[in-house]
Amino acid sequence: MKLLFATNNVHKLREVREIAGNDFQVLSLKDVNLDTEIPETQATLEGNAAQKARFVYGITGVDCFADDTGLEIDALDGRPGVYSARYAGEGCSFDDNVQKILDELQGIENRKACFRCVVCLILEGKEYLFEGRIPGIITEERSGEGGFGYDPVFLPDGHTMTFSEMPAHLKNGISHRGIAISKMFRSLSSGNLSR
């Protein structure tokens, strides 16, 4: 089965293809010759995921899915949340975002956080939502070379390695995106899609 992933993020694309394995062919926007900025202007993860999927489906007519992910930090009243990708400002780097939260959490004992991912699948014009979440803490400094985004400072509950320190197969098995994407693929495999 072929599905188009509505993202321009090569890191996410690689991660999702690893999760999909051989059962699903995950197409990139390049595979369908779509080179455009995808709108992401909603106030919630659910809203952004649906907006991105609808935009790409509207142009291509190809069954597709999109995700939106947020890091929600207790001590920051749930920030950066829906603004996780651009928390340090427009045009910022992953490193800028990480530094901003480390600065804001300096001296704060409560470092509880939750990574949340919402996936919107559009299949034959119908929409389905899948959610994945994983609790953890924000470490006091970066650790690890793998992953991307906030991975170097996110230590999931019950583990001794940050997402950046984990091998891809381990991270994909427990991560918020891994959980949401796996739910989607399992639903597709079983034919048990509920709206």
Could you characterize the architecture of this molecule?
This protein is α/β, with parallel strands linked by helices and 195 residues long. The protein has a single domain, classed as Maf protein (Alpha-Beta Complex), CATH 3.90.950.10. The chain contains five helices and seven strands; from the N terminus they run βαβαββαβββαα. Strands 1, 2, 3, 4, 5, 6 and 7 form a seven-stranded mixed β-sheet that branches. Strand 5 (112-123) and strand 6 form a beta hairpin. It is globular, with a radius of gyration of 16 Å. It starts with a strand and ends in a 5-residue tail after the last helix.
Number of domains: 1
Shape: globular
Number of helical segments with 4 or more residues: 5
Q: Under the CATH scheme, which architecture would be assigned?
A: Alpha-Beta Complex
Q: Please describe the biggest sheet, giving its number of strands, its sense, and whether it closes into a barrel.
A: 7 strands, mixed
Order of helices and strands: EHEHEEHEEEHH
Low-confidence stretches: none
The top level CATH class name: Alpha Beta
> Into which percent range does the helicity of residues fall?
25-40%
Give the integer mean of the pLDDT values.
93
State the secondary-structure class.
alpha/beta
Total strand segments: 7
Topology of this structure?
Elements: E1 2-5, H1 10-20, E2 25-27, H2 45-60, E3 64-73, E4 80-81, H3 94-104, E5 112-123, E6 126-138, E7 154-156, H4 168-174, H5 176-190
Parallel strand pairs: 1-2, 1-3
Antiparallel strand pairs: 3-4, 3-5, 5-6, 6-7
